[in-house]
């Protein structure tokens, strides 16, 4: 369903930042390749970053809303500094349906994210 959004971003030279279930990372990259995206080249150039939940939301084994907000701001700022016109960020958050440490912070995180994202023109789904 999000493939047109993702492929359009590559066509426009946008940065693609994806956070995925670690069990689905390979399948995610395969779907991108099937759409004609050179995932290895895009990762090497910095245009594509695909992180697992543990590398983003669950660093240190728990969800820390402040660390996650800082990561998102860092990604958006760095991409702009690297010359990407936009960052198209997409994230799978099914981990929040599990009993993970820090999960009780998700609602507050989403509220705080609503104050961060308007500072940027980037697309976040």
Describe this structure in words.
There is one protein chain. α4 runs parallel beside α5. The protein has 125 residues and is an alpha/beta fold. The protein is built from 5 helices and 4 strands; from the N terminus they run αβααβαβαβ. It has a 4-stranded parallel β-sheet, with helices on both faces. The radius of gyration is 14 Å and the shape is globular. The protein has helices at residues 3-11, 25-34, 39-45, 65-81, 106-116; strands at 15-20, 48-52, 87-91, 123-124. The protein has one domain.
Q: What's this model, at a glance?
A:
This protein is an alpha/beta fold. Helices cover 43% and strands 14% of the residues.
Q: What letter string, H or E per element, gives the SSE order?
A: HEHHEHEHE
The average pLDDT score comes to 95
Largest sheet: 4 strands, parallel
What's the end-to-end separation, in Å? 12 Å
Percent of residues in helices comes to 40-55%
- Rg to the nearest angstrom? 14 Å
Global structural class? alpha/beta
Strand content: 5-15%
Based on CA inertia axes, which overall geometry fits?
globular
Number of helices: 5
| Annotation, overall tally of beta strands | 4
Q: Write down the domain tally.
A: 1
Strand order of the largest sheet: 2-1-3-4
Low-confidence stretches: none
Key terms for this structure?
single chain, about 120 residues, alpha/beta, four-stranded parallel β-sheet
């Amino acid at each position: 369903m999000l493939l047109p959004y993702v492929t359009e971003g590559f066509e426009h030279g946008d940065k693609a930042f994806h956070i995925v279930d670690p069990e689905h990372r390979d399948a995610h990259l395969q779907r991108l390749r099937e759409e004609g995206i050179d995932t290895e080249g895009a990762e090497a150039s910095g245009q594509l970053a695909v992180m697992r939940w543990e590398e983003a939301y669950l660093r240190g084994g728990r969800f820390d809303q402040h660390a996650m907000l800082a990561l998102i701001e860092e990604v958006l700022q760095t991409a702009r500094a690297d010359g990407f016109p936009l960052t198209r960020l997409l994230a799978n958050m099914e981990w929040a349906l599990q009993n993970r440490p820090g999960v009780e912070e998700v609602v507050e995180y989403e509220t705080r994210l609503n104050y961060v994202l308007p500072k940027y023109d980037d697309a976040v789904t």
